[in-house]
Amino acid sequence: MLFASLAPQLSTKNPLSFPGTSRSTQTLHTATTSGILRRPGSIKKLRTTKKFQRAIASTLATDTDAVEMPETQPNMLFAAAMPKEEIGALAFLEEQPESDGRGVIVAIFDTGVDPGALACLLHNGDRHGGLTCLRVRAGAEGLQTTANGKPKILDIVDGTGSGDVDTSKTVEAEDAVIVGIHGDKMALNPAWENPTGKWHVGVKHLYELVPAGLKKRIKEDRRKSWDEQQAACVATAWTDLSKASKAVDSSKTKDAEAKLRLKKMKEEHQTRTELLKDMTAKYEDTGPLLQCVVWHDGSHWRAAIDTSDMYEQGSDIGRLADFKPLTNYKTERQYGTFSAQDGCNFVCNMYEEGDVLSIVVDSGSHGTHVAGITAAHQPDNPSLNGIAPGAQLISCKIGDSRLGGMESGTGLTRALITVLEHKADLINMSFGEATSTPNYGRFIDLADEVVNKHGVIFVSSAGNAGPALSTVGAPGGTSSAILSIGAYVSPAMAAVAHSVRQEIAQGQQYTWSSRGPTPDGATGVVLSAPGGAIAPVPQWTEQVRQLMNGTSMSSPNACGGIALLLSAMKANHMPISPSRVRRALENTCQVIEERKSDAVLTYGRGLLQVHKAFEYLSKSADVDQPDVRYEVKARRSDSMTTQRGILMREPMDSFKPVTFMCEVQPRLHEDAAMGEKLLVYDEVQVECTAPWLEAPHALILPHNGRNFEVQVDPVGLGEGLHYAEVQAFDSKAKWRGPLFRIPVTVIKPTAVGQGIADHAGPVQAAAPAAPFGVIKAPGLDEMQSSIYDPQPTADIVDTKGSAMEEGSHQQGVKAGQDFIAKLGTVHFQPGTEVRRFLEVPEGATWGEMTLKAGNHATPRNFMLRATQILPHTRYSDTEARAYASLGAHARHVMNFKLTGAATLEITLSQFWSSLGEGNLEVEVAFHGVGVQGTGVIAGPSRSSKVLVRAPFRSEKVNPSVKLNTFQIPLKPVESQMQPLDAARDQLPQGRTIHALLLTYKLSLDAEGKHRVTVPMLNRYVYDGEFEGQMSMLHDTNKRLIKVSDIYPDYADLKKGDYVIRLQLRHDDAVLLDKMKEIPVVVERKLKEALTVPVYATNRDAVKGGKAVKERALIPGERVAYFLGPVPQDKLPKDAGPGNCLAGSLKLGLLQGSKEHAPGAFPIFYSCGPKSKPADKDDSKESDDKDEEPKLEEAVWEAKLKFLQNQKAVKESDTDTPSEEDKEAQEVTEPKAEATSTSQPAELEEELLRNPPKGSGDKLRVLRSRLKRLSGNMKESPQAVIDAADEAIGVVDQVALAQFVALKNPEEGTEGAKKKKEMNEIKAGLEDALAQKCRALVEMLPKVCEDEDEAQEPQPSVGGNPDVQQPEEAAQESAEGQQPQEEDAQEPAAARSEEEEFRNGSGGDGEDEGLDPAAGKDAVQAFIAAFQELRKWVDTSEAQYAVLHANYEAAQERPALAIKTLSKASEDKAPAREVLELKMQMFKELGWQHWHRHELSSIRLLFPKAYPLF
């Protein structure tokens, strides 16, 4: 994830932001430097703070004429916008001007890099398919060329697959025209060569490609054009309504039918105005559809994109033939732009022999900014150069656009493959997040291989989760093979980049920069670099550069510095390896705040110094042979756990001296020869940096390594943090610095418990930074969302008290009987950090920290942290964090979840940009309410007992159980495993990655917010076992609804059926095979949480007695509570066996409040079997029949059932059936013996000859026939009409109507039997009438199509497929069904009083509508049939909506038809035929923008195939 967050936008025309789920390591500001940055100057004058201050003073002098100001001084002022001086890069380039990164390739793992950043967009360039081809002018700035004129970006790839287009369908051209996926005809450019004649076609929706911010802007621009068209239609509709009203009012006709027609036409025009108003409120832009074509020109694969859907209909812009074809970016390094308006650049790559087109669009501005810091080249203004302007770049997009820019395992793995393909020297990755296990996971293994086997140097951000300890993120801060970079802010950066209004005396770490150590003892942060810059951003942001800060910025700064080193090493033919370079970097850093105990954990080895590192490498080139890296492990003597360092954090760790067995293993490259191994013989001098450490003084290290013992004696140490190292030096060249280090971190917490007290002196923050500030918006908001883990952090309740008078304070740390730790009054300066470590009492479950501010003139902004570290648990799951802006004497209370008997770190920091001194009086109180029990309620059959105890102090409890999630477990119905394409999915040594595709079927009986989870795999990113995991949720039409990977998100789903596809990726096919049965769990948020009753006794639970109330527990008291059961009628209607409800039990109350304390005990409610409904008192036939008649009747019923189970033959069934269809067919179509009656038609005739119960059974057979024939209705509508007429003919409609009209039908057994039979007959009649109407609709004349739209989908104006089934209809009561008022039977013809306004001014006249003259008989037949149907059913119901709409259309009332269609999709997704009929009606109305919108909706909702992963 992107580690950082977005700061308030200072001044931007179009603020764009990353989605909340993004996981970068930067904090985003918006600022433009156009017009400020001038010509280059002599930057070396800025090397000292005093010179920098003098430059600022002279530049800002009021009377500039009175000061001799060199031309270079403006650049001296603003050079810190791209900080280089701090890391010694400028000093290095002065000595090595040709070693500016040239010869070095850097891979940027990020959101993608805009290939046109800072390029010149020539508006007079050639337009191709709506794309303005970018022509980069000579000397174009930014990310175009290197300092020595080579291409800046060598390749741009999208590893995520979010831009992949399925182009596996091939077509052939006819007269230089091809037909696209949706039937659109597209002319080809005659100049395009295609020897094979095969054209691959596919489609992609633009909104699936572009970032969220750009998508919003495109929508806004498109809405302006749409509003203009809508306004014109609204004006016309009101004009026509006025004419219609006047015609009705002025009519003098006495003809009733004519009056009715006028009334209906007025209603039609009234409906048009209402529709336009209602549809405007609900309008949602589906976005343009891009038509993609791929072919092979004999040399390369080429791609062209038709973007005409982005422009007004009928425009010549964006045509396929005008597009300048693109090939794989690395081949010709060309790119395109979707339109001059959006400025969004993209590249194309083709895979799998043209079957996959990858359209690469950056998923955010972050990646371009990072690339600019690393290697931007600005020849006209070198002060804006990146750190290594001569380096070349590879853009590896790992931020998946489908996931809001969040990284995916697939993207990460493909990025590593791309690095090896291009033989890159460096990787920068400004992504990451918390991990449960450091230095572990599939990606970590692959990254280790890339670094230590292939010699690539991997640089990554440490994270933005500070200032608490152990908050470094993965992969950078927790992985041995990766250089983790913290974020530093210098005085120059504070003045120029952040525009603070006061100078600062010295640099410091940004408050939010993550700290070490890792949970396994490694330092976490390797070194630090400037963590902010004003750097290039993509063109679609509508600005040139932007200020961002975070470890996302410090990482590319350091990466650029290392690129300078590698450039010089290559130029001087020096050996290069990750270990050699790392040793030089670590041993030459500028040490910062060396005396602070947390200095190494904050800054790493210090601030990067490029020039000194190169001096070191030059001096050690001959000594550092062979090239060795040292792998260090430490194991506590009384434990089996092996770590990369020594971390003693918990209370029991510091009671006595502890010994550790340490192992040091020299490592050479994998292919090292025997001679090299024999050369490894290091005579090492060992030193300890603190007296409480003991280690051997001398150590001889051969190739196979050595073990030795280290003793840590923390007994005499004071409370708090202590850091030291065991350092190993080359005894022959100690100047080389430590060859390896064993970091040792000891934390001695203050005991907080009864009878323990420590009266310390005043608490004074050590080494406070000098005061400085910012112009506006303290930097507090800047990091408000910098917690880069998208999941909620540890439970926390923040409350702010009113201002209080300042009283006397008891200073120091005191623990007494109330289990309160008083930290006294703490003094702060901007950037001051204070840590206190407390031993949480056994049984504590939450803490309450109270802060009281001092007498501040203005509010101070504080970052508050309460952190615990637990095994295999993310720090973000156990850390509470808050931000408080406290004025004078303000009181702030922070409550947070705790784990007993574990060390708690309280970290308080005044934000680095919050001006002025601050004071806080702080105390922490501990509370506990413990729970024992299973937490599982076994359904309605029993309750669950839990034991609750207050372990050490009196607590108030009020048990409350809420279930808020309904869980549906699913097993896969299909699995498929296959090897992936070698071009981008093959690891070194020919290890092909395989993909396991699992399919699940979901049927929902309730709507709501749902998400698809894989509990075994979710939330494991860098510590996960697979190279990729991704799930896709689809409806039955293959429409993609939601994409999820590590962090599943909710989607609104309606009732119905869905398909879930889960893909797992790994190169180990055996491991994937074990996953073939892995379940997924679909979770639904309950609209209202379900309350589980809590009782004091089992007796109360059984009898449903009174639920418990609030009560107090004295210290040590234990009580029992009985949870549940929940009444069956309170459970969700779809709850059944296998389902589960999840929630939590809350117990303790906050002090002086009715609010529950943080922390909850998880509860799971197992749903039992549903209660069976009471058997109906149906009449049963007497048993006085002979056995033979009963047998004959049973055989007849079995044959009829067989017929009813036959699947209707549809046009779509001519396609090859899927495996799911085959499986369903096996279930629904039982096999029958091959007899003379095996054919349905013959069997129907046989049953019709001998129905057991006369006409009623005959009607059942005819309904079965009607069902069978309706599947082929479009091709044979007359057959359906004939079958329907035959079914209608067997019904005595007079007798049926008389029965329906009865107010009090016969009662008793015979009466119930009669009612059932008549209802079945009525349902059969209704079904036959409806099917007849649908068949007649197919015979109506269709709308005439324009030639240019001949390939648009033909509207299907048949009936709704969701028609009520006969069996369901038969059970409905027939009471109240009266024939409705009928319209005139004759279709409306041209009449003198109606001619002026029938079609409206915006319509297209009779030529576009249903032509009554051409199909008068068909129209009359349909109207007559529909009128018959209306006698028996309410056609306004949803199941008849399509028929009713066709009826309105036949009467030339398209608006009423559209209004009727809205009922067909009130509680479900609209059927395709509904949208197609609406589209036809819009065309008749002349509402072309709505016609086009409906066409886009159809193509979006009904894709031709599932999307690619």
| Arithmetic mean pLDDT | 82
Shape: globular
The computed structural class is: alpha+beta
Largest sheet: 8 strands, mixed
Tally of alpha and pi helices: 33
What does it look like?
- Helices cover 25% and strands 25% of the residues.
- The N terminus is likely disordered.
- Strands 2, 5, 16, 19, 20, 21, 22 and 23 form an 8-stranded mixed β-sheet that branches. Strands 49, 51, 56, 59, 61, 63, 65 and 66 form an 8-stranded mixed β-sheet that branches. Strands 37, 38, 39, 40, 42, 45 and 47 form a 7-stranded mixed β-sheet that branches.
- Strand 53 and strand 54 form a beta hairpin.
- It is α+β, with helices and mostly antiparallel strands.
Task: Give the topology, please.
Elements: E1 27-28, H1 49-59, H2 73-78, H3 89-95, E2 105-110, E3 127-128, E4 131-132, E5 153-158, E6 164-166, E7 169-171, E8 177-179, E9 185-187, E10 199-205, H4 212-250, H5 256-282, E11 289-296, E12 301-306, H6 329-332, E13 336-337, E14 345-351, E15 356-360, H7 366-375, E16 392-397, E17 399-400, E18 406-407, H8 409-421, E19 426-429, H9 442-452, E20 457-461, E21 482-489, H10 491-496, E22 508-509, E23 527-530, E24 532-536, E25 545-549, H11 551-571, H12 578-588, H13 599-603, H14 610-620, E26 629-636, E27 642-643, E28 646-648, E29 658-667, H15 674-679, E30 681-688, E31 693-694, E32 698-702, E33 706-712, E34 720-730, E35 738-748, E36 750-751, E37 763-764, H16 779-782, E38 796-801, E39 814-815, E40 820-828, E41 833-839, E42 846-853, E43 860-867, H17 875-878, E44 879-886, E45 891-897, E46 903-910, E47 918-927, E48 930-932, E49 936-937, E50 944-949, E51 955-970, E52 974-979, H18 982-985, E53 986-987, E54 991-992, E55 994-1004, E56 1008-1013, E57 1028-1035, E58 1040-1044, E59 1051-1053, E60 1056-1066, H19 1069-1073, E61 1080-1092, ...
Parallel strand pairs: 2-16, 2-19, 5-16, 19-20, 20-21, 21-23, 28-35, 36-41, 37-40, 49-66
Antiparallel strand pairs: 1-25, 3-4, 6-15, 7-10, 8-9, 10-11, 11-12, 13-14, 14-15, 17-18, 21-22, 24-25, 26-27, 26-29, 29-33, 30-32, 30-34, 31-33, 34-35, 38-45, 39-40, 40-47, 41-46, 42-45, 42-47, 43-44, 43-46, 48-50, 50-64, 51-61, 51-63, 51-65, 52-55, 53-54, 55-60, 56-59, 56-61, 57-58, 57-60, 62-64, ...
Helix pairs in contact: 3-14, 4-5, 5-31, 7-11, 8-9, 11-14, 12-14, 21-23, 23-24, 24-25, 24-27, 25-27, 27-29, 29-30, 30-31, 30-32, 31-32, 32-33
